Amino acid sequence: MKILVAVKRVVDPNVNVRVNSDHSGVDIANLKMAINPFDEVAVEQAVRLKECGQATEVVVVSIGSDKVVETLRTALAIGADRAVHILTDVSVEPLAVAKLLQAVVRKEEPTLVLLGKQAIDDDSNQTGQMLAGLLEWPQATFVSSLVIEGEELHITREVDAGTQELVLQMPAVATVDLRLNDPRHASLPNIMKAKKKLLDAISAESLGVDVTPRLTIIEVRPPIQRQAGKKVATVQELKAAMQNAMEAR
User: Is 20 helix (H, G, I), strand (E, B) or coil?
Assistant: First the structure.
């Protein structure tokens, strides 16, 4: 069984970001970048399935400029077998990402496709669902437990009321949550080995997908700074303060 895992290069989650002075976006110049945390969980789960003999190959794929190679090498160091780099300098939106991944799936013919449930930069939470729709495959989102039994995928997913258990017939698409596992730290020997693993680079144009952005960012602003609280001496004073606040809105 082959598993395909989609990964994305994002700003390291431990780094504080700032909005550009012109409010056109987030300033990522000279910031540390990393593999999207949710995608890292997906890679770890695929590697674990291979280590226990339920998968024969783990292929990772990412979309972006030459800088994405670093992210793919990280996934290879975790334990993936090879990587596919879809080259483009365009900031690709979820629908275009899903179409590009669809083209790769048609070529690679995996039994299972794993993605993080969302990327921490745009928080779209759309790509996995769109990909499953384009492929017409069963899908499971927000996966916190995943077990393969024969040709079936047994998953537990998190919902508002608690958890939900599903059984999917493979091939299938699953988007994973952070609680699925605790990703390993790549060892130095594995990091060195990753440099020798196969990494295929293909252009987005060669896959026949139009990646032209369809959305326009009007303005990006930082969150409103929280104001200091105020102590009140009586319930009546609290009631008056709340009433004034409501009227001010």
Answer: coil
| Own/partner pairs, 100-103, CB within 8 angstroms, 24+ separation | 100/63, 100/204, 100/207, 100/209, 100/211, 101/6, 101/61, 101/127, 101/131, 102/131, 102/134, 102/135, 103/207, 103/208, 103/209
Residue 234 DSSP label: S
Pairwise CA distance, residues 82 & 104, whole Å: 13
In order of 44, 105, 174, 215, 218, the CA distances from 116 in angstroms are: 11, 17, 8, 22, 27
Pairwise pLDDT comparison (236 vs 229), residue with the higher score: 236
Q: Which DSSP category does 122 fall into?
A: T
3-state secondary structure of 162: strand
Tokens (6 digits) for 238: 């609290």
Element (H or E) spanning 154, and its range? strand 152-159
Radius of gyration of the chain (CA): 21
- Tell me the per-residue pLDDT of 19-64, one tens digit each, with 9 for 90 and over: 888 888 888 888 889 999 999 999 999 999 999 999 999 999 999 9
Rounded CA-CA distance 237/248 in Å is 16
Give me the pLDDT at residue 31, please: 86
Q: Taking residues 101-107, what's their average pLDDT?
A: 95
Strand-pairing partners, residue 165, are 156
pTM, to two decimals: 0.85
